[in-house]
């Protein structure tokens, strides 16, 4: 549906240095954070977004991060030629004043990219070939940024993958017991607290200097990889959460989203099993690129990330449940509790298959 009559969108878009006259504006994509539109002129199409500054409060830092990362990626790819660069990376369109974003009179923050035509993405990994492509894409992304100084980027979401921070929030939720739900989840709390120390492994390795701080994506869902018409990797997108971190966080979050045979909020936990072939394919794709720069201890940390990310997501769901469901959108009263149990069942399944997962990772690293 065209949004050409929306004066705020049109007015905001007119502040950017685009080619041609706008002939169509329509909603685009299925993202839940930013409002996204396709702006079509008589010569080109653009991706136009209203940034959710309730989540990304430091818009200036966010956009500077994006520029630094994109500039670095474009330099890395420059020897392939202009066409390859434009297809393989996002391209920011500045305002007429040369700024990275525009702030409208209602304190809305807008940005614009060239729309990459002829690409597609998938919400769910269905084949081993797709899993391999996803692993390769994020491995290459990390590799391309491995020589960029992390201090040049702002930590746009502080403590995002800090398990100590997440556990502190859970303990506060237990103490406050705002929704009066603590007693009904004591068995779940026991399970979580029993595994807390193990889940601190990556954080401790980082604090001890065993893991280098890298620039990581921090939202490694498969639909953040654009593929061409032949299902080949073209570009990694959604750079809002790119910031300093440890590589195992990206690896673990990707595995969390592809290895589960059921939905994230599957109420029947018996349906939650591991898709081992997809794990193997992703690991092989990732290490085919990432082993060019990973240290030995970083490769060791990958398996810890596989366990940590579903565990940490369970902690976040449970914290919200105890707080009365104030953060995540829910569709029924126990939705966050169901999500918690599903994530912890995934952890249990991983524990049952730990030796097999470790063997696959070791084999992938040593190829």
Please tell me about this protein's structure:
The mean pLDDT is 94. Helix 10 runs antiparallel to helix 11 (335-352). The chain starts with 6 loop residues before the first helix and ends with a helix. The strands form three sheets. The chain has a five-stranded antiparallel β-sheet, covered by helices on one side. A two-stranded antiparallel ribbon has the order 6-9. It has a two-stranded antiparallel ribbon with strand order 7-8. The chain contains twelve helices and nine strands. A hairpin with a 5-residue loop joins strand 4 and strand 5. Helices cover 46% and strands 11% of the residues. It has 367 residues and is an alpha+beta fold. Residues 25-268 form the Aminoglycoside phosphotransferase domain. This is Aminoglycoside phosphotransferase family protein.
Q: How would you briefly describe this protein structure?
A:
The protein is an alpha+beta fold and 367 residues long. It is 46% helix and 11% strand. The strands form three sheets. The protein has a five-stranded antiparallel beta sheet with strand order 1-2-3-5-4, with helices on one face. It has a two-stranded antiparallel sheet with strand order 6-9. A two-stranded antiparallel sheet has the order 7-8.
